[in-house]
Amino acid sequence: MVVERDRTQELYVLFDTLRQSSTPKDYTNGKSDALRSNNEVQRFNRYAQAFSMDIANVSESISRLTKLISRQNVFEDQSAEISALTQVVKASLQRLHNDLDTLEELKRRSLESQRNSQGYSSYEKDRFFSSGASSHLQASQKHSDVVVDTLKNRLARTGQQFRSTLQHQSMNIKTNASRRQFFTAVERPQTFESALFQDQEQHSQMQLAAGMGNAQYYRQRAEAVSEIETAVAEVGELFKDFTRLVHEQDEVILRIDSDVGSALDNVNAGTNELMRYLTSISSNRGLILKIFAIIFFFLMFFGFVVVR
After folding, report:
1. 145 lies in the same domain as 50
2. pLDDT tens digits for range 256-296
3. Residue 292 lies in domain
4. DSSP type of residue 190
5. CA-to-CA distance for 242 and 69, rounded, in angstroms?
6. Are 68 and 85 in contact (CB under 8 A)?
7. CB neighbours of residue 103 within 10 Å
8. Do both 87 and 163 map to the same domain?
9. Which terminus of the chain faces fewer neighbouring Cβ atoms within 10 Å, N or C?
10. Which H/E stretch holds residue 307?
11. 194 domain residue, yes or no
């Protein structure tokens, strides 16, 4: 007598065991590498976006500083606000210059993580990937290079704009100081009435106070000019680094142009070879037709002879 037994649950357990054992480890590792790569790429993109916004904010501050400098004259002194804004812009440019290294490091990590995520794919690549994976990596690397180079050029232009603004401010301060000295140094002619009714001692005290005020003003202007010249020198050092970065970018562009020129020369050489080959084929076309006609004639002749 056969005893029936329900073994459905055992079958389900066997299926689960086989499914877990058939899943390769490199597939799960590949998924984790892909997630890590995606996180690195997103981190680089967020940092580049924040870097771009910081450059825009610095450019806006420089524009505001330029407006303040253009509105400043002998009768409206805005030196305190201009000095504070100058220090803010200078500190922001220094911070952005230091952040360039961080941006380069994030770009390197992003590309390295993408290479690692595509290296897991002995199982995954055979199933899902095609030969376009390497081209995708090259496109991603080119995009990252373009983003970093664009931000470098924007930062270099911003530094040059700030340097020009500081030089204009220095010239403006010197011009206003000359005008103030001209207006305050002119003495009114002394008339007969003023000689009779003017207290000489009071007049001397007023002149002394005015002279002390002018001396204090000139001392403040000299300190402001000295601060501006120091800021110009510091920005000049930063601008040297920006210029070096721009020169490196120009060298990369020149190399790309030379590579494009070499590729174009190779394409033209290949076109010329194809045209020469086509010409040789066209010139031998009659000979080829004659050979085929002779072969066809012999085939027909031997065919009739064999048939008979």
Report:
1. yes
2. 777 777 888 888 888 888 888 877 777 677 777 888 888 88
3. 272-308
4. P
5. 25
6. yes
7. 20
8. yes
9. N
10. helix 285-307
11. no
Q: How far is CA 106 from CA 96, 186, 252, in A?
A: 15, 63, 21
**CA–CA dist 64, 85 (Å, integer):** 9
Which residues lie below 8 Å from residue 126, measured CB to CB, with a gap of 6+? none
Which pLDDT value is given to residue 286?
73
Helix 79-119 to helix 132-185 angle, to the nearest 10 degrees? 170
Task: Give the pLDDT confidence of 191-217 residue by residue, as tens digits.
Answer: 444 444 444 445 555 554 445 555 565
In this structure, the answer to whether residues 283 and 164 fall within a common structural domain is no
Q: What angle do CA 126, 26, 106 make, to 5 degrees?
A: 95
Q: What is the pLDDT of residues 53-86, one digit of tens each?
A: 998 998 898 888 888 877 776 566 677 787 888 8
The answer to whether residues 172 and 91 belong to one domain is: yes
Do 276 and 234 sit in the same domain of this protein?
no
Report d(CA 227, CA 269) in Å as an integer.
62
**Residue 156 and residue 295 in one domain:** no
Residue 179 has pLDDT above 70, yes or no: no
Does this model's pTM top 0.70? My answer is no
Domain count, the chain: 2
